[in-house]
Design a protein that fits this description.
Blueprint lengths: L3 E4 L2 E4 L4 E7 L1 H4 L3 E7 L6 E6 L6 E3 L7 E6 L4 E6 L8 E8 L11 E2 L3 E6 L1
Parallel strand pairs: 2-11
Antiparallel strand pairs: 1-3, 3-8, 4-5, 4-9, 5-6, 7-8, 9-10, 9-11
Length: about 120
């Protein structure tokens, strides 16, 4: 069973926008807390945003605060990451993940998607 499937990545220019989607299985979506992380070659996986089970509380890394927005469609078990004003330093593979805990720590996330590449050129 595939639990999380990301889509929406691509090649864009600085200042452009992209919206990533993460289709979740019912069991992963029902864990309640969904997150987006990103990773570049040779680096550790970095927290980007999370949205919680309680009141859809969202939280962002300082590097994306004010530019990215996480949201979820509960009817269809989909989590989105709207990315605006993209910068070259946003270039990475973006991963969707699910956790029973509201956390920025990737070790707390039990289920992961395969990732989608986002490349931002200057």
């Amino acid at each position: 069973q595939v639990d999380l499937v990301e889509s929406g990545g691509g090649l864009v220019q600085a200042g452009d926008s992209l919206r990533l989607s993460c289709e979740a299985s019912e069991r992963t979506f029902n864990l309640g807390n969904m997150g987006w992380f990103r990773q570049t070659p040779g680096e550790e996986r970095e927290f980007v945003a999370t949205i919680g089970k309680v009141a859809d509380l969202d939280y962002y890394s300082e590097s994306v605060e004010g530019r990215f927005t996480i949201s979820k469609d509960k009817a269809n078990n989909v989590v989105y990451l709207q990315m605006n004003s993209l910068k070259p330093e946003d270039t990475a593979v973006y991963y969707c993940a699910a956790s029973p805990r509201y956390s920025v720590d990737p070790r707390q996330y039990h289920y992961w998607g395969q990732g989608t590449q986002v490349t931002v050129t200057s």
